[in-house]
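Standup notes
- HV: blocked on the assembly model, inputs below
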Amino acid sequence: MTEVHVNSELLSLRGVTAGYGVSTVLDEINLTVHERQVVALLGANGVGKTTLLRVVSGLLPTRSGSIEFKGMQVNHKSASQMAHLGLAQVPEGRGIFPGLTVAENLRLADFSSPDKRTSPLSDADISETFPKLADRMNQKGGTLSGGEQQMLAVARALRMRPSLLLLDEPSLGMAPLIVQGMYDAFERVKQSGVAMLIAEQATNRALAIADYVYVLGTGGRVVASGTPAEISSSSVIYESYLG
Amino acid sequence: MSEFLTVIAAGLAAASLYSLFGVGLAFVYRVTGVLNFAYGAIASVSGYIAYSLISHELSYPLTVLIAITCGAIVSALTFLLLIIRIPSRSHEAIGILTLGVAIVLQGILQSIYGGEPYTLRPAVTSKPYFDIGYYGVTAQTLINLGIAGVALLFLGVFLNRTKFGLKVRAASEGSLTASMFGINTVTVNTVVWGIGGVLAGIAAILVTPLNQLTPSFMTYYLLVAFVAVVLGGFESILGVVIGAILYGIVSSLMATYLTNRLTSTFSFLIILIVLIFLPKGILGRHLPHVNEPTWPRSTRFSIRAPKSLTIRAKGLRLKRRSRLRSSKAVLLMPVLIGGVTILIAPKLGQSEQLLVAMIAAYVIAALGTDIIYGYSGQLSLGQSGFMLSGAYVSVLAQSRFHIPYLLSLLVAALVCTIIGLILGGPVSRLGGVYLTVITLAFALAVPEIPNFFESTFGGSGGVPVMLPLGLVGTDDRNLHLVILTVVLAVIVAIPVMLLCRSRQGRQWRALRVNEISAAASGIRVSRQKVLAFAIGSGVCGLGGAVASSLVGYLSPESFTLWDSIYLLVAIVIGGRASALGALIGAALVVGLPYATSGSPAIAGLALGVALIFVLMVKPQGTRGLILQPALWILDLLTGRKSQRNVNEELESEVIR
């Protein structure tokens, strides 16, 4: 159905329903991320993009449906178990520890190496991709600017050598120039073969990098999916954003 | 000069203990967000185990090792079995849970070792090293300083130089985010509680040669630990150490050159002043936190939406309750219960009659506690302080100013309300934990005042209290007391119930359920909290005045911190925000020690276990057990079918 070349499924959600308290946010979601594939998750505010990422990362339990990661049923895995299985994320709000130094923030990634043989990215690799961070290794995370924190969050997630990287609204609150630099970095990550699931409101950026796109609509359902070309040629995005 | 040096050295020796204790408390609070009121009890466990092992001729180092390990295990288990499993995540509920642990541990110690004090052999029993006058610096002092220093150094190295330390620091800044990096935060927090237990154990073993070992001997150290923690700003470990040193030296100087009979009052004043002027502590630093999203955790009790909570544009309306509770007829309930009690009273024996009168007096205090904790959701431990104040005010008003008994009760309530306003005013804006700490200090400080001003208050010997006789038409002394107190309890219960059913009471309940929504609906949160605290404290003072007049004698030991704790236990077990709950709870906490007379340890143990059970399993309290049948009877009488299920309704109030 798509032009993805690698067919092995890395992550698949089947009929996943989830929510908070009495409200149901995700309703029967079906979604697949293949290995080395970049999937964009689009939709207006409040349709459940973040909730979907929380469910995948083990922070929020599912009500029904199944989640498989690397062919394993992971519905009841905790967030820390998912990290050990090879899932990394740049969470909403970036998740930088303000009282830890940049170096310490990066070292947190070493606690979960799913494959003990692959060593985490060295500091040299980091400074090659994110030169600005290298100068600030001993600075407290809380003193970094928003863009630098985002870089640190991405670097930290990559240092985990993940199979799948979850990105929640990476462009939120960023200056356009910084967003450009960040997506350049994502492009390099994509070339290195890491699969990504990007929840994004900056539709154009996401469409440019994605191999496949899901659009969430109100009621927490997938209202459309397809290749970026198919999605951008249809009016489904406009409709989903305008209700 | 040499005496001055000795005093400073003694202060430093004390400071080393305070800092161990305070750092343990602050460390657990900083990482897991729980202020552990069982900390003193956990320390006592280590102290008693050390005592047992030493009296079995075990070598000293091995004894210390085993005792400290036991403290660590008890502490870690408290977290693993209780703290992370409690359905309500509110910090008041968790605070009371740790109080429950303290009650249970103390009950166990008391039933094994009895209440008599023991003395632990010091590590070294040699002569003072340096004889610089007065006390001399003993070997024990130097050992205390050394061990405390080494322990704190180890903690610092562990936190800043090890891999696990990095995990701990990450988890303390944001446990959710830490878990995304493969850090098992449950393991980390359990270890942190274990380390807290280790520090408590070390402190207990170092302090026991100086203080005698009794089941509650650590209460005082809990207070000084709080002083150190407040000075340090709750989250800065360095600040706590500095705070402990400052407090140790200053209190040592004060004890020597001024008086040593006002130490708790002194601690109370320091906490009050620091909280008013330097709420972030002397270093003015707060631990930065990751800006983490929060969402409602689906526990058993929050799946259901609070049906009774509807927020209207103007003011927050919490209503639509069952007919049983919303009808005005419910106000007849206290009259009915009181009337039946008075009718039964003549048939009871002498001691049962006194018991009923005492329960009635504690119902008044429990109603006051319910206003503070049950309605407005503030965790205060000051009730015993207010009961004692109220009792002394009433007695003095009668003996000095010849004010009649009933009027003196009013004066007592009024004075306690004013004290509550003064105390609650500056502290309530800071939020929950601060009120608990300051009221704990208050409860420990009040008994020192009558002790110190002997000429006015009769000192530790106490003062006689005139029995209030000749007010009700009976000559039987005990029967007279029953009728009087029951009538007083009913007279207090009705306005309290009316108040809590009014717009006022709904505001309190609203801010208990969700402070931010309450503020957004136009409720002045700080003002309402202070008001609830002051009114509740006034009612507690009234209860104390009534209770003291039953005994005919009043001393500074008439009401202790344990009264505050048991009043909270009463509200939790009976069910919060309910006069019926206050009655059930008061009957339990007064009646149970009476029923198990001769073994207070068993009563305490039973109440502690019941408290923990209610918090963990049935957070809505036990009053539903009585309310539901009452609702059925009402349905039967009126011939209508009630649509509501009381337990379901009560559950909806538990949501935070």
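- HV (later): unblocked. DSSP finds ten helices and ten strands in chain A. The interface with chain B takes residues 20-22, 50, 57, 59-61, 78-80, 83-84, 88-89, 91-93, 95-100, 104, 107-109, 111-112, 142, 156, 160 of chain A (CB under 8 Å).
- Next: hand off to the docking folks.
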